[in-house]
User: What shape does this take?
Amino acid sequence: MESQQELAGYIERATDLPSASALALANLRQSVSEIVDKMRNHDSLDVLESIVYLNLMSDPEEYRETDHEGSAAVVELVALIAGSGTVVGNAAQPGAYDMKDQPEVDGVQACGMTALNAASKWRLFEALQDENPTSGLSFQTVIRETSLRNTSYPHMLRQTLDAIFSHDDVIADCVAATGSTPTEIFRVLDAAYSVRERRWNERLLGLERVHAIYLRWQEGDRSELTEAEAIEALGAVWANPANAAILDIPEVAAETGLPPDKIESILDLFTSSLEHDSAVDLVERFFRGDNPLRLRPILRHPSGRRLVVHESLLLPAFRERIEEALKIAGRTDRYLRRRAKDLEDAALSHLKSMLPNSIVHGSFEYFIPHPEKPNEVEPSSFTKFVESDGLIIVDDVALIVEAKSGALSQRARSGDSKRLGQDLTKLVSDAASQAERMRERITKDGGLRLRNRTWLDLSGIREIYSVTITLDDLAGIVTVTDELVRAGLLPGINLPWTVSIHDLRIIGELVERPAELLLYLRRRTLPELTRTFLATDELDFFLHMLRAGLYVEPDPEILAREIPNIPPTADQRRRFKKQRTQFLTSRTVPLDDWYFYQLGSKKTPAEKPRLNVQADLLRLVDEIRDSGLPGWLSTSTSLLSCDETTRQDFIEYGSKLAQATRIDRQPHTLTVILGDRRQNFTVLVWACRPSNVTKQSFDRHHLRYLAAKKHQAQALRAAIIVFNEDGTFSHLLFDNREPGPNPELDADVSTFGLTKLTDMNRAQTMRRLTKILGD
Assistant: This one.
């Protein structure tokens, strides 16, 4: 609300976008000037460390992302000013702690927040003047660079880095480029973090002494000694806070066991020296996405002292800083191959864990028609071969996997629209094109002719998704899929799911059944999704699905094209028209609580986030999965895809049909049609077999009925969930043959007297049940 009011205020005071931009920039510069003034006559590193404490240090037991008001961006803003040539503060001289002569930290914090607000308006007004189709994405990218930190859990990022930098040839190249092994670099960076933590823990122990003196004061001890003791005790905690963070080479050497000269060289790799830049220039570059602290998060003050600006920058800087050194040394080839292969292997491993019964084809080559040879129409004549990072087959579902281990360039991060478009083409567009190339061969040819001349039969595949895994976290960019489509970076149909390797791992640890992943893919790849839900974090989408379904009303026009046999109803058109955009604020608090408890950072037990679906339906889904019968995955996923009321009906159908069968000793069925796209369009039938009818005769008759119903709907799939007389699940019947003209099935539609598709709805289904049971 405040942001909207501030935006309105800029618009009221400005005559056009350029003047609004100039006004916001002037306000930003004013905030910087005020911070500079508040730092004068104080040690600027004391101011910085106080800001670090105010924004980033909190009790892990009490921490909640949605409640935490601290900002890493404010810390980095103050660090840039403190280390600039504009402000030179020497180390505070030892002496008695003077409570009246302390920096105005709250004032600096307020100015920092004002600067953030002004900068966001400045960048917004600048983006609105840019006619480049990627200008919106450029704005998103710069805001992301400014405001997002710790997009991956540190332990996951560390494990990924350990894997990439564990290969002997990569280690050798790292030593040649930096003079140190990756392990040695990690040891120094870990020590740099632990030094500050240990010193602050020692300081904060002094608060107990302060409290004891306060109690004596309350009890009436007002002696001069008590007052002097209190000042001394407060000083031990709060005086010269920068001393808690200043890096001391001998101390780091004692902690790591490494020689001082090696420690010095490693720290130099990650050190920023900013004394030759003005505060205003540094801050403006920061808000353009050019943050020197991103790769060099250790600040060298003009006085020669240095400290880690904040620990959230250390681990993410490791990979890109070493990559930069390898590039300068001309030693990137082996590293890049290892990095790409590690990402492919990790991506396939995480997906396999979610789809335990799947068949995985990793890193293979197959033939496609040569673009310059129009006579190549049959797979046996194809002469051009291309590579795929992976293909996962489970039931009749295929996941085409592309792994992209590159990163956004500095120019792209700073909002250069042209360079951002080029980088996203390599990371997102190319992967989508490669996946679409395979999708076309599967759908047209029914399989792939592999490089070794063998045939991979995929004729039974009915549902295909492309999954692009990135090493770089593109949070805030790939979550605005619709923006990528409008910028021409993604096609409007067959959208890929682009996700970072760490988010994929987290989703893999949360998914408890394969149907949950397929349900998310169905939701996440809808073009309508990111027009309906806005989020900066992939996990917000996934956690919202677990909790509330992530359902969007499908576009009636797309629905009519995809499923022409069932035209959209007036009610569907009305619901789609009324659908409004929702912003998904952070949904990750329960996830943080669970992870931090698992890691030991929190002592309070926390439940793992799980799919919010009725337990009885989950039991049926698991029984269908455990049967392993054809159609188990698509059928169990369709059962989860509806709202709570419909899911409750699904739970009751089996028992009610069984009750009817026990009354008249006859088979009974109920049919519903589900799906919002052709590839998940499913005829789903509940049926109960009387004990006096053999399974063989029941299945023979009902498979013919199922084929007729599927033909009537021209659906890709149809399934019957068969129940026993006692209401327990028996087995699954499934038909996923390609639909099309069939006179024999036309006759069966008439023979069975099938209900018209447009008459099949929930109310009609419930009326049939009521009639059967005579209630």
